[in-house]
Amino acid sequence: MPIHTWSAARINKEFKEKAVSAVEVAEAHLAVIERKNDDIQAFVAYDAKQILAQAAHLDQHFQQYQYAALAAVPFAVKDVIDSAHLPTAYGSSIYAAHTPGVEAACAQVSQRNGAIMMGKVATGEFATQTPSATKNPLRVTHTPGGSSSGSAAAVAAQMVPISFGTQTTGSIMRPAVYCGVTGYKPTFGLLGTAGVKTLSHTQDTIGLLARDVQDLSFYLAGMFSTQPARITNAPTIGVCYSRQWDYAESYMLEALQDHVNWLQTQGCKVKKIRMPQQLEWLATQQPRLFQFEAGQNLSFEYETAKKQLSQRLQARLAGAENIGLDEYLGLRQQVLEAQNLMAKLYQDHNLDLILYPAATGEALKGHKEAGDPRFGALWSLLHMPSVAFPIGTGPSGLPIGVQYVGAFGCDMHTLGSALFIAEALPPSN
Predict the structure, then answer these.
(1) Which of 19, 326, 357, 420 has the most CB atoms less than 10 A away?
(2) Across all residues in the chain, what is the average pLDDT?
(3) Domains of the chain in sequence order
């Protein structure tokens, strides 16, 4: 198997055993970027000389990095995440010539553990719904989703095994399943947001995209010098039905039901749960809370460079003026109550995971829209970890996927439970 098809875990293992050099790893992935990026437009900035210099440093100081948890693993970062030596435009012409000179925390921690920073990948405008130019590697006539479009596409195209994305509503879950890869949104704040352009300070979450759950677990563990997650007993899963399910395509609902039936054949205990009305209501209010915060955090851009913002974003920021402080603080109180309610729901039903749609269905044709983000909204708002991966294909042959949500702060158990399910899926899926 060519190096660029290897998992992050295998790359790390082969480097430590001196079966491959870091330079060979970097060159293999650079070749894929240079061959595919003109068509897919996942990467918006990279420097081959810089990449190879990082790799050469690892090889020259092998004894120092021999035991580094992420040594020689290539990764990319979404372009709302600052880079010390590369342009960071946040998906906007306003910052076309901007180079922060500071490395974001997630990238710095990765490099400290031996990973190779390959460059910046495309984002929707300030991580909102206005799409980037990225195409879906599985079918370039279709959207890769948003706003972590470049992150998902880079992994799907085998340019990198790991990419950092961000999610405020559904920006990791949807691109992951649209592009046929795996996405992970951690518990809010697990990965430090220092060096990330703020959109919603109570919801913005840094996460990871990879080819499978195993690599996600490997990389996360490596960042914190701990062991990857794994469980041995079949998890208990709550299928959480809500009004949002009405927005899913009929074939998506059928696939989810088939998946639920299959889970039971694997020994999983499945419980049907109806989302409490309080949470149903809160899910409809998430956009207003987001809008209030975005109105503050993008106030400089709105007031000094309004004409360089998309019409869509201009309208959303203008709407923030119609949300009063009392409403906003009331929503924050509702979120706190909902977090407590969810914790009780997991305890009362003895749940390991909640099953929920990740997207309405397959990736949409065209590039003007990035798809409906609603299925990640509540879980982002409540700060809960979630994992999404494909479970089959839709009518046109593109992937469709499921989202598994874990209890607050139970990230390793969530990843371990998701891994139990993902590894048992038939190869055809």
Answers:
(1) 357
(2) 97
(3) 3-223 (3.90.1300.10), 236-424 (3.90.1300.10)
